[in-house]
Design goal:
Number of strands of chain A: 0
Distance between the termini of chain B: 83 Å
Order of helices and strands of chain B: EEEHEEHEHHHEHEHEEHHHH
Largest sheet of chain B: 6 strands, mixed
Number of domains of chain B: 2
Number of helices of chain B: 11
CATH class of the largest domain in chain B: Alpha Beta
Order of helices and strands of chain A: HHHHHHHHH
Strand content of chain A: under 5%
CATH superfamily of the largest domain in chain B: P-loop containing nucleotide triphosphate hydrolases
Strand content of chain B: 15-25%
Helix content of chain A: over 70%
Strand order of the largest sheet of chain B: 6-7-8-3-9-10
Shape of chain A: elongated
Helix content of chain B: 40-55%
Shape of chain B: globular
CATH architecture of the largest domain in chain B: 3-Layer(aba) Sandwich
Radius of gyration of chain B: 23 Å
Largest interface: A-B, 16 and 22 residues
Distance between the termini of chain A: 35 Å
Oligomer: heterodimer
Chain lengths: ~250, ~280
């Protein structure tokens, strides 16, 4: 299992970074097709999630901070939590559930119906033809969705501050921007890039190694979601440790 | 690298493949010459598909050698196998079309990947190949929207897209109506006679097999039971061959071999043991 996963990663690195220089270029149109599927079609779900998170964070923060008369810090808390943790993690959760599972199921079905074998026999490498476009699409779209989700999350915080606490819009924006540094954004972006790698390689690996018909596809899809979630959350803890606790 | 006209296109020597201690391919040797159509037949589970997978290099044998176009395929790396595969086409049993692409895109796929042809030229070739299998006008449908027999014919068009020197077909006519079977057979004959393509066809369909074969191999339990020209096979004295080509239920070929073995282990063996225990109990009582 782990051996297959490492082999997939190596072969992926070869097809992304080495093969294009030997004239075997991957297809750009396929990447855009996958970007629409993985990214664009997930925007509404990401927006709803991020907005709810922003609202929840603001309400919880307001509840605690009001007791100390420090509601002024609500925007700080919303902004930092979303940029550093909630944004990258929860949007990765959405993408795992929606796009990761779909990729595992799609590749798994292709494996079961001999399509992968047919590609190999046509001298088309399945990693180059199927995995590389999905990988690059995910690597672009997950951070992009995270930026988008960050905006919506902060908007959710604003909604609470503006309508339930006595903030004005300018005050909220000023406070939020003042609290955050660029590193808060960048650390989140690095995280979501790493998550993108984890999610798509686990999904593709699960799909490409399906055995045993429709039942196998189901099992591989479930396994890919569980493994990707666990790997993503553990990696998140490690990265938070390195970024904010180590130095 | 052009193959000299008289040297074999495929050369299989002493091929053996074991899964654990089960021998699936047991010492098979044969040659296929340019322009020949070799039909491989045999009952389900006799190792036909496994043999085919060894010839196209997607499985490695336990021992023995497979040469295609004079090159040993069993020891090749992925890259070398890919370069050999560009010279042959393969039709899968299910057609194995990519479900996400249209019929036209499926046929165009090998052309887009392996040639520098312009889009117009590719469209022209796709139209020509689809016409050959009687499916012109179906370019824009998805595989899910056409029947199983049509999928198979699209698979054939795709296998022929690069004008291969060698064509492998895994049950090309199963699921086709008799007229389409004849069309596909005639196409195979035309390509092998007119354009010196070599064909290796795995089939159950005896009518079709005798129509297209120049040579036939019958497999049983992983080894060659009989081989020869269609006439030699038709007149073979071997009762297994006669049972198979005439499709008779009674004969030397055992039914459900694995189940027989299973029963042997499950029921026959314990009996003496139980009987012995009964005797033992009687004695002590």
């Amino acid at each position: 299992m782990l051996k297959n996963y490492l082999r997939l990663n190596l072969s992926l690195l070869y097809w992304v970074f080495v093969a294009p220089f030997t004239g075997q270029f991957f297809s750009i149109s396929q990447i855009f097709r996958q970007m629409v599927f993985i990214g664009v079609r997930a925007t509404s779900m990401v927006a709803l999630t991020a907005f709810s998170i922003g609202v929840t964070l603001a309400m919880q923060a307001a509840h605690s901070l009001q007791q100390m008369g420090a509601e002024i810090y609500v925007p700080d808390l919303v902004m930092l939590s979303i940029l550093r943790e909630m944004g990258p993690v929860l949007i990765a959760v959405i993408v795992i559930g929606r796009s990761g599972s779909a990729v595992a199921a799609e590749l798994g079905t292709m494996k079961v119906s001999e399509e992968i074998e047919a590609l190999e026999v046509m001298a088309i490498n399945p990693v180059q033809y199927l995995v590389v476009p999905r990988f690059l699409a995910m690597l672009i779209m997950l951070p992009a969705l995270t930026i988008f989700g960050n905006y919506i999350g902060v908007l959710g915080g604003w909604a609470v501050c503006r309508f339930a606490l006595n903030f004005n819009t300018a005050g909220y924006i000023m406070r939020a921007l003042e609290s955050a540094e660029t590193w808060d954004l960048y650390s989140g972006m690095i995280k979501s890039g790493v998550f993108a790698w984890i999610v798509i390689t686990i999904a593709c690996n699960a799909g490409l190694h399906v055995e045993g018909g429709a039942e196998g596809v189901g099992q591989a899809t479930t396994a890919s979601v569980v493994q990707a979630l666990l790997a993503m959350l553990v990696t998140n803890a490690i990265l938070t440790g390195i970024f904010f606790f180590g130095a | 690298m052009p193959t000299p006209a008289d040297s074999p296109v495929i050369e299989v020597v002493d091929l053996i493949r074991k899964f654990g201690d089960r021998t699936v391919i047991n010492d098979i040797s044969f040659n296929v010459r340019r322009g020949e159509t070799l039909v491989i037949m045999g009952g389900s589970g006799c190792g036909k598909s496994t043999l085919l997978r060894h010839i196209i290099g997607s499985m490695k044998p336990t021992s023995g050698s497979v040469k295609i176009f004079g090159q040993e395929i069993t020891t090749m790396n992925e890259h070398e196998i890919a370069s050999v595969r560009r010279r042959f086409g393969m039709l899968f049993q299910s057609g194995a079309l990519l479900a996400s692409l249209t019929v036209g895109e499926n046929v165009a796929l090998p052309l887009l990947q392996h040639t520098d042809n312009s889009v117009d030229e590719i469209e022209e070739i796709v139209e020509e190949k689809l016409q050959m299998v009687g499916l012109s006008g179906f370019e824009d449908l998805k595989p899910a929207e056409i029947s199983g027999g049509m999928k198979k014919r699209v698979g054939l068009a795709r296998a022929l897209a690069l004008d291969p020197e060698l064509l492998f077909s895994d049950e090309p006519t199963s699921g086709l109506d008799p007229i389409m079977t004849a069309v596909v057979d005639q196409l195979t004959l035309k390509l092998t006679h007119g354009e010196h393509m070599t064909a290796v066809v795995v089939t159950h369909d005896m009518t079709s097999a005798f129509r297209i074969a120049t040579r036939m191999i019958m497999l049983g339990h992983g080894s060659i039971v009989a081989q020869g020209t269609p006439d030699e096979i038709r007149n073979s004295p071997n009762p297994e061959v006669q049972q198979f080509i005439n499709g008779e239920a009674d004969g030397p070929i055992p039914l459900n071999l694995s189940q027989d073995e299973h029963e042997h282990h499950q029921h026959v063996k314990p009996r003496p043991f139980i009987a012995a225990r009964h005797r033992f109990h009687r004695k002590t009582a």
